[in-house]
Write a structure and sequence with these properties.
Blueprint (H helix, E strand, L loop, with lengths): L4 E4 L5 E5 L8 H4 L16 H5 L7 E5 L46 H30 L2 E9 L14 E4 L8 H13 L5 E3 L7 H6 L6 E9 L15 H21 L6
Parallel strand pairs: 2-3, 2-4, 4-7, 5-6
Antiparallel strand pairs: 1-3, 5-7
Helix pairs in contact: 4-6
């Protein structure tokens, strides 16, 4: 079985997490997906490539498995992040359009979920936890920046077009206000882009679970509309280098600013 995560250890107080860029699906699980599921449409396409090299000394932790195997950004107990709103679960039964992804009678059962928690979800978060602890020990503080993307039009999940930059801090609970403000300052000044703070996406389980400013661990989520860096939000979900290069300027600015803030956050 492929290792469920990849790590690059850096010397910065900033950690970049990539829970949804993986495309690995074990054959036994892939065989149970229907034709729609095999598109893997809800992958955060090319996000690790988009951020590559922007903050060279940052630590990165990336899940290699696809979110249809199990979602690394969901509560392992299956608790909904957004009660009362359409969403997908720990092991999704549908895609973001509400369409089934499993063959009839092949949807994962409780035993499948337990096995995937053990083999994928838990190892990824153990690796991420270890890196957070290593970075905090070295710097007295760790800033976790959780990297995401999503299609800009998904009526099943939200109305109208999603803003280009979607910052999530669980209403300011997961990080010091200076981190939130620095990020907001960059995106609000970015010409030809729109943005929102704690809109439809307020930070997933990763952000909410690890973001404990009182312990020296700060977390912030960035959800990017895929129209900002893909040629098209439909298969084959190709990377658009021109769009991406324009976007990377602002992402680099964010990361550099929050790295500069870190020393002042020591407890």
């Amino acid at each position: 079985m492929t290792t469920p995560y990849e790590i690059h250890q850096g010397t910065s107080p900033v950690i970049l997490a990539f829970p949804h860029t993986g495309t690995d699906v074990p054959p036994a699980i892939y065989d149970r997906l229907n034709d729609n599921g095999r598109i893997l449409a809800d992958t955060d396409w090319h996000i690790h490539e988009l951020y590559d090299g922007l903050l060279p000394d940052a630590t990165t932790v990336r899940a290699t498995f696809n979110r249809y195997v199990i979602d690394a950004n969901r509560d392992p107990q299956g608790v909904s992040l957004y009660p009362g709103q359409n969403t997908t679960g720990l092991v999704p039964e549908t895609d973001f359009d509400g369409k089934p992804i499993w063959k009839d009678g092949q949807a994962p059962d409780a035993a499948d979920v337990d096995a995937r928690l053990r083999d994928f979800h838990a190892p990824y978060h153990a690796a991420l936890t270890a890196e957070i602890e290593r970075v905090r020990a070295a710097h007295g503080v760790a800033i976790l920046y959780d990297c995401h993307s999503i299609r800009s039009h998904i009526p099943f999940l939200f109305e109208s077009k999603l803003p280009d930059f979607n910052i999530g801090t669980d209403m300011g609970r997961t990080c010091d206000g200076s981190i939130e403000q620095a990020t907001l300052t960059v995106v609000e000044a970015a010409q030809c882009y729109d943005s929102v703070l704690n809109g439809r996406f307020k930070g997933g389980w990763t952000t909410r679970h690890y973001g404990r400013p009182e312990t020296g661990v700060h977390a912030i989520q960035m959800e990017l509309a895929q129209s900002t860096h893909l040629q098209s939000e439909t298969p084959p979900f190709a990377y658009d280098a021109v769009k991406a290069d324009r976007l990377r300027v602002h992402l680099k600015d964010i990361l550099v600013r929050i790295e500069q803030i870190a020393p002042g956050l020591k407890r």
